[in-house]
Amino acid sequence: MSWQAYTDNLVATGKIDKAALYSRAGDSLWAQSGSFQLEPTEIAAIAKGFDVPDDLQVHGLHIQGKKYFLVRADERSIQGKFKDDQTDVGIIAVRTKQTILIAHYPTGIPGSAATVVVEKLADYLISVQY
């Protein structure tokens, strides 16, 4: 299966509206849905945040120029929420042995439902040594 199929499958669940797959170091984009691509500083902060979440805790999680409130940051996953008068969306980033999955869920989707979808794909990638 191509890397693109993984991002396509995340979006096809209906729980995720945008997804990207990066190398574990965050220095290479392997697949994306539509134009969902992070700035180099954004993915670098996420890649670092799995091991040292201090900067994310202080400055928040930035995705495509928007600042997300950090909900969780540990060695496995990073989660953020963005809420204003019109939107209530979130980000889930999960690190595997060789990749970082980044997924965006839209208004109306519970963060827990979106997290299950992304974590399940991450578990699969880990099981096949990715």
TrEMBL record:
Cytoplasm among the record's keywords? yes
Q: Which UniProt keywords apply?
A: Actin-binding, Cytoplasm, Cytoskeleton
Q: Does the UniProt entry include the keyword Transcription?
A: no
What are the protein's GO molecular function terms? actin monomer binding
What SUPFAM superfamilies does the annotation carry? Profilin (actin-binding protein)
GO cellular component annotations of the record:
cell cortex; cytoskeleton
Q: Which InterPro entries match?
A: PFN, PFN_euk, PFN_sf, Profilin_CS
Compartments where located: Cytoplasm, Cytoskeleton
- Mind telling me which SMART domains this protein's record contains? PROF (SM00392)
What functional role does this protein have? Binds to actin and affects the structure of the cytoskeleton. At high concentrations, profilin prevents the polymerization of actin, whereas it enhances it at low concentrations.
PANTHER family attached to this UniProt entry: PROFILIN (PTHR11604:SF0)
How would you summarize the oligomeric state and partners of this protein?
Answer: Occurs in many kinds of cells as a complex with monomeric actin in a 1:1 ratio.
The similarity annotation says: Belongs to the profilin family.
Q: What is this protein called?
A: Profilin
